[in-house]
Structure formats: structure tokens, C-alpha cells
Amino acid sequence: MPELPEVETVRRGLQPVMEGAKILVAEARRPDLRFPFQPDFVARLKGQVVTGLGRRAKYLMADLASGDVLLMHLGMSGSFRVIKPDNEAAPGEFHHPKGKDSTHDHVLFRMSSGADIVFNDPRRFGYMKVIARNALEDEPLLRGLGPEPLGNEFDAAMLARSCEGKTTSLKAALLDQRVVAGLGNIYVCEALHRSHLSPRRIAATLSTRKGEPTDHAKRLVGAIHTVLNDAIKAGGSSLRDHRQTSGELGYFQHSFKVYDREGEKCTTPACGGIVKRFTQNGRSTFWCSKCQK
Q1: Is 201 annotated as catalytic?
Q2: pTM score, two decimals?
Q3: C-alpha distances in angstroms, 18 versus 49, 51, 121?
Q4: Which of 11, 44, 55, 58 is catalytic?
Q5: pLDDT tens track for 46-58
Q6: CATH architecture of the domain with range 4-138
């Protein structure tokens, strides 16, 4: 499933052709994706100008001139491609095989910018919903989300407060969207390795008895910032179905320190450990038991 860097990469690819443009045509080519489309889904989009394109956690959010917001989630295999009138993808050649199978092209937006935006989703775990901007706080899909890990408010003190008294593992806490929004399995594994913290460590150890952040919390927040920013710069990771809107692969998978590197030597200088894998909360965890404590 695409994580925050992949979703941010998609947002940046869509922004030049969506933001400031009018939706001339909106098509929902089936009655549902993961959830049924609203009866007025198309009607609320057609003719609307996209005044801004943002991201909240793993959601894309297109602000409309009407005061509505188009909420979009990629699910497990969803992807957007941008096609110009000459049928070439922009801003690069699109070459994702699944994206060329029109049977999985479920939503189309024809924009006044001259581009067609197609949402392709073979597994149909993605979803879209139109929500009034003034009702976003009450939206079940967004309610309870924690701070953005790249936002100004997310720091060691906030993370320590969120983890204070938690007896769950540190990895489980970071995957809890109420603690921090948008982190997923890949980048949690990477951030824990870069901060030399064990995924089995108790989350409460990020906070002192007085509720202040420990050095562990400070290291971890720094690692989260670094790994996410590096991944965004690299265009995300091309695991499974992820592609950029141009169709090009993300390249951050070439920078993984531990994820999917079971049996390989740890990349931490002078460590000498071996990357191991174990199942944690139903997901694969990759770590080095020698340098992550």
C-alpha cells in the first residue's frame, strides 16, 4: 500500500494539471471502488475549479470552488496517470502495465488544463468521496488522525506525550494513525533502524517520568523527518504497484537500510550485524538486533 512519500509524490505530479483548472468532465465508470460512489458524486465535481490540491496523511484532498473537498485514497494498487491530448503521459512517459489496461480505469477527470486524469485500480481498494469543507472535522475517515510527521507541530515533545504510558511496542505505536498520521510499515522500519531503536522497545520509553521527551524520542523524530524527506525526493518506492503519475518508478527502494533486506549485512558503520525479519502485528518487521536497542 502506498505510504506518505508515495502519496506526496502523486500529489506533486497531479498539482500542475489539476490546481487552478476546471473539471470539464467527471466519469465514474463503475458504481463503487472499495465503497460505493455517492449518488451525486459526478454532479458535485463537474464544472468545479480545483482551487488547491493537498494531502492529509495518506489522503489526497482537492479543494473545489463550491466549498466541497474531493477526498481520494489510493488503496493497495490505485494509481493516477496524466494524459495530454496527444495521448502521451505527462510529465513523462507512462509505462505501468496495469495502467494501460482500460478495464481498470475506473475514474476519469477531464481538466480545462488540457489533461485527462485517470484513476486505475486493479484491486479496487481505493476510494473517493466528496465532502463539504465545513464537515471535514466530523468525517469518519479523517477524524482522530494524529499530526503530520512533516508538519511543524510534530516534534519529540509531541511524540513523547502521545507515547506516554503506552505498553505497546514502539513499532505498533508509530503505525497507529492516531499517534502520527501517514506512516506505514516500510518507513517505520527504516526510521527505527536509522535511530537505532528496536521495534520491540516499549513505546513509553520515549517519555520520562515527567512526560518529557527522551533522547530516544529526539533521535526518532529526526530519523522520521530524514527518511520521509529522502523518500519524497527519490519519488517514493516502487514496491508492488507504485508508480509516479508520469509512470516512472520511485527510486527510494534502492536506499533501504533494512526493509526487505533479510539476511544482508547491516549498513550501520562498524556494526557487523545481519538484518533479520520477524512478524509483528501481522506485518513483516526488518531490523538489526545488534545496533537497534
Answers
A1: no
A2: 0.85
A3: 9, 9, 20
A4: 58
A5: 999 999 999 999 9
A6: Alpha-Beta Barrel (3.20)
